[in-house]
Amino acid sequence: MKDKSAKTVVRKANLLLYASAQFIVLTIAAMFTYPGSAKFEPQSDRYLFFQNFFSDLGATKTYSGLSNTTSMVMFIVALSSVGLALLVFSTTWKSIANREGDRIFGYAAQVFAVLSGLCFIGIAATPWDLILSAHNSFVKAAFSLLLGFIVCLSALQMRNLWRKQYLVLNLLYLVILSIYIGILFYGPDLTTREGLEFQVAAQKIIVYVSVLNLGFQALGIRQSASLS
Predict the structure, then answer these.
(1) Containing H/E element for 141?
(2) Rounded to the nearest 5°, which phi and psi values hold at 67?
(3) Membrane-spanning regions, if any (predicted)?
(4) Is the pTM above the cut of 0.90?
């Protein structure tokens, strides 16, 4: 890889690493500034980790009707940054591909990453309390497209004997993400407290695991480019 190209890859990987870190920091901060209330606990005065979705952080108002501006702004910045970073990062597959026939997986990975990133931005731009249908559609599309990206990225890693630790964690994440997508489409509904808590817990796990895996994969790309 040429020196200039390597530096570009490093910058793109650094952007995704930064976006992953700031997502964790900003969403935790948003939870502390959330005014409170949940579907089955409307009188709550704080964010309930197992009853409030991430999307509640991005709503314009809480279930009890309180303004949620501070948390909403932090959520929008956090998720939009990840979506934008994924768009920029999408071309770095070229630093993995060294074999004939890799391009089909590489360009597919790039398309999936771009579309998934746009959908994550779409989630941030559509508060569920104002545009529920569009918000839910973006959620389902974002994770489904992310699955496509991870499948193609894993295929590239296997074909090019990528570092074992990155491939193994990517494959493990692939299993977790596949399970979550099943829950997202076919899991318990939100009309009962038990169903809601199950979906909220599953979402918390997949969101933070997704961000951590993206950051870890970006670290692998950065290390490889730095050695080029």
Answers:
(1) helix 132-159
(2) -65, 140
(3) 15-34, 72-92, 104-125, 137-156, 168-188, 200-221
(4) yes
